[in-house]
Structure to design on (305 residues):
């Protein structure tokens, strides 16, 4: 849902424009977000690469003392070190919705597209730091693989640059890009979809694409971005609205004339969430009025148990 053209909000940030300019844009915003929540959420929750313990062996002169197992020493009175092997890097894709509906922002608030960019930037920062290879894709007017999964110097900046270039246009249609993402990943990869999930057909296109990814063995997380106004948590201003992905269809909306709006929205998202969970995907509702670092911290704490 989107107000008529004369009330459309420009692209905005969670920080004032003059401060954004001083800080240097999305890169520093992502780092600020990561610093804001990583202290409260265990950083290994999203980790893919790392070291896996394999066995103990007797200590030999010159072994790294950090690998001594002091608990085993207390039981046996013998020095042993723990041996590890490097785990393979996890290949991941961030898939960002750039359809027209993502351009919506409440007056004075951040747009869904900008919020999604902050979420994607922070997750890219986290996963690259953890050793994963990370790629970026988008869907809307066009379905595109923007950045291939890599983990090397300058890769985060390339992802951030593509996020800055994203413009909202066209209708949602996730299945095609999800199929292409699946083909670009090894089996057992990770796909994080960031979207408002507003599409015709009750989310059927998205569910089909997610189902095929899960059938391949990929891990799928769907982060739903919405504004409080869309969720019915704030009163709708009286007036004429239009469907941003079908501009020919006008919608009359006024709270007094539509008392069941909040219930229908809740039922819509509940149905999509249930469909995602039935397919083995993780469904994470997020609202643009919650600071990105708080939303991510809550999610990662929940994943960490």
């Amino acid at each position: 849902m989107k107000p008529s053209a004369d009330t459309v909000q420009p692209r905005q940030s969670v920080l004032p424009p003059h401060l954004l300019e001083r800080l240097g844009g999305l890169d520093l915003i992502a780092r600020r977000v990561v610093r804001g929540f990583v202290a409260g959420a265990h950083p290994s929750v999203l980790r893919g690469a790392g070291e896996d313990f394999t066995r103990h062996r007797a200590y030999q002169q010159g072994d790294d003392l950090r690998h001594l197992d002091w608990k085993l020493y207390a039981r046996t009175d013998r020095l042993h070190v723990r041996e590890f092997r490097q785990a393979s890097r996890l290949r991941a894709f961030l898939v960002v919705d750039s359809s027209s509906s993502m351009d919506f922002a409440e007056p004075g608030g951040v747009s869904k597209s900008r919020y999604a960019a902050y979420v994607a930037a922070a997750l890219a920062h986290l996963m690259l730091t953890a050793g994963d290879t990370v790629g970026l894709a988008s869907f809307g007017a066009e379905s595109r693989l923007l950045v291939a999964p890599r983990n090397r110097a300058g890769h985060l900046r390339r992802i951030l640059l593509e996020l800055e270039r994203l413009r909202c246009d066209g209708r949602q249609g996730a299945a095609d890009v999800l199929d292409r993402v699946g083909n670009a990943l090894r089996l057992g990869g990770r796909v994080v979809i960031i979207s408002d999930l507003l599409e015709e057909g009750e989310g059927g296109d998205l569910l089909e694409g997610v189902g095929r990814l899960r059938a391949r063995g990929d891990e799928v997380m769907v982060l739903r971005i919405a504004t409080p106004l869309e969720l019915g948590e704030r009163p709708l201003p009286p007036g004429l609205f239009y469907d941003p992905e079908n501009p020919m269809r006008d919608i009359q909306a006024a709270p007094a004339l539509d008392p069941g709006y909040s219930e229908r929205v809740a039922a819509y998202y509940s149905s999509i969430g249930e469909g995602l969970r039935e397919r083995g995907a993780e469904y994470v509702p997020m609202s643009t009025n919650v600071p990105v670092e708080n939303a991510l911290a809550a999610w990662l704490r929940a994943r960490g148990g």
User: Anything to note?
Assistant: The first helix runs from residue 17 to 23. Residues 1-24, 37-44, 247-252 have pLDDT under 50 and may be disordered. Residues 227 and 288 are 5 Å apart (CA to CA).
